Amino acid sequence: MSRSVLIIEDDPRIRRMLQMTLQREGLEVTEAGSGEEALEHLAEHTFDVILLDLMLPGKDGFEVCREIRKTSSTPVIMVTARSDSHDVVAGLEAGADDYVSKPFVVKELSARIRALARRTRAPEPRVRLTVGDLEVSPTEGTVTRGGEMLNLTRTEFRLLTELAAEPGRVLSREELLERVWGYDYFGDSRLVDVHVRRLRKKIEPDPANPTLVTTVRGMGYRVPG
Amino acid sequence: MSRSVLIIEDDPRIRRMLQMTLQREGLEVTEAGSGEEALEHLAEHTFDVILLDLMLPGKDGFEVCREIRKTSSTPVIMVTARSDSHDVVAGLEAGADDYVSKPFVVKELSARIRALARRTRAPEPRVRLTVGDLEVSPTEGTVTRGGEMLNLTRTEFRLLTELAAEPGRVLSREELLERVWGYDYFGDSRLVDVHVRRLRKKIEPDPANPTLVTTVRGMGYRVPG
DNA sequence: GCGCTGTGTGACAAGTTCGTGACCGGCGGA
DNA sequence: TCCGCCGGTCACGAACTTGTCACACAGCGC
């Protein structure tokens, strides 16, 4: 799963280095050269983690951190020049969640970002969806019928989850593409058909006469409410 | 092996700083903001070491220490503001095992915790997990089948424990990496595969057709619920 | 019936994921 | 010191997934 990171760092060289290396690690990176710019970004998007350099011109990192905390609970990783315990305590007081001291190992940094993103992400409630006689558990990643686990692929599973989350509602191919494949997927929408078929093959008692995932001609698919 | 520490400290800043730095030293940290809260934690878990700040609101550290001693023999490290010999003597009298004065060096603190934990490791409550016909005892570090003990390595054991702790749930490689290897591990996630294989070789009746630790392709591993 | 559009079906190639054996370095015990 | 165990890495092949295609088929308006 891709995590989004906001980097707040005034030195453009370091910023670019971070941007490239973290991107290579599979993270979505947004850059800000100042606290003001950062707050603008935060007004528009939410991020999984914020990476904040202490040494900023104008407002210093602590102040930026406090301002961020006023409007957002996004976890903040402070980047300190040296691991000065005074800075650390001040950073924590300002609302930071973790800190890293320069020079840092990129791998370590990205691991921390991931860990923090995972840890502070709202604990997923244990949801149980039902589709006919199927039990779908999004958090456990399982689909069972009568206690027996069905072997779905990741795509099939997501497809079923999206449909099951809104029973009765017809989801268009475009909607499903966006939800299952992501908004940056530009392929054929027939792709959905193929996966619906594969899904049916596994979950429908009679795949030729589907009852769990039904077709609404000209509209899309749905699971009966 | 990881040691568990209970921090009793009213200042949230210092508490968080301690929590994070000690965690980074590989210690499992639980926090308590007051003596009452600490006693609640102690009723539920056992810890290897208790880190107790003298300057607590309400009951002072000495009193908390005496109360702890009524029910538990877990070693206590007192944290004093200054190395006042009067405080030290009173602390030892109250049942503390060691003392550290502020400001302390984190490395030193973690070294003392380790030393004390090693010296007086308390017998932990027994927890039993089962995986198929296996009995897993996380506290004793043993896995048995029909009374016969299996010879797992530390890594294999922890891997099995993490999976067994949440039967039915699929744990991703990333999750397993974080839980077994720690979130500061930056290696290949294929490492998990290799250890799963080694684990299977030892616990599965037929390692080629695993039933105790099963693969969920594209997701991770699980032990059937 | 006819044509059009939308959907189901089987096949296929490329890519991904996973299991496996092998290797190497570090560490501790004999 | 040597030896064996353990943990981490690698390369390879098998199995599986996935996106795409061509074609068949069904519904619908005419």
Explain what this protein looks like in three dimensions.
- The first copy, chain A, has 225 residues and is an alpha/beta fold.
- The first copy, chain A, contains 8 helices and 11 strands.
- In chain A, the strands form 3 sheets. A 5-stranded parallel beta sheet of chain A has the order 2-1-3-4-5, with helices on both faces. Chain A has a 4-stranded antiparallel beta sheet with strand order 6-7-8-9, covered by helices on one side. In chain A, strands 10-11 form a two-stranded antiparallel sheet.
- The longest helix of chain A has 15 residues, at 106-120.
- At the A-B interface, helix 4 and helix 5 of A face helix 1 and helix 7 of B.
- Chain A binds a DNA duplex (30 and 30 nucleotides) through residues 153-156, 187-188, 190-191, 193-198, 208, 215, 217-218.
Reading off the top of the CATH hierarchy, the class of the largest domain in chain A is best stated as: Alpha Beta
Helix content class of chain A: 40-55%
- β-strand percent of chain A reads 15-25%
Structural class of chain A: alpha/beta
- Count of the separate structural domains of chain A: 2
User: Which fold name corresponds to the CATH topology of the largest domain in chain A?
Assistant: Rossmann fold
Oligomer: homodimer
Order of helices and strands of chain A: EHEHEHEHEHEEEEHHHEE
- Distance from N terminus to C terminus of chain A (CA atoms, Å) equals 30 Å
How many E-type strands of chain A? 11
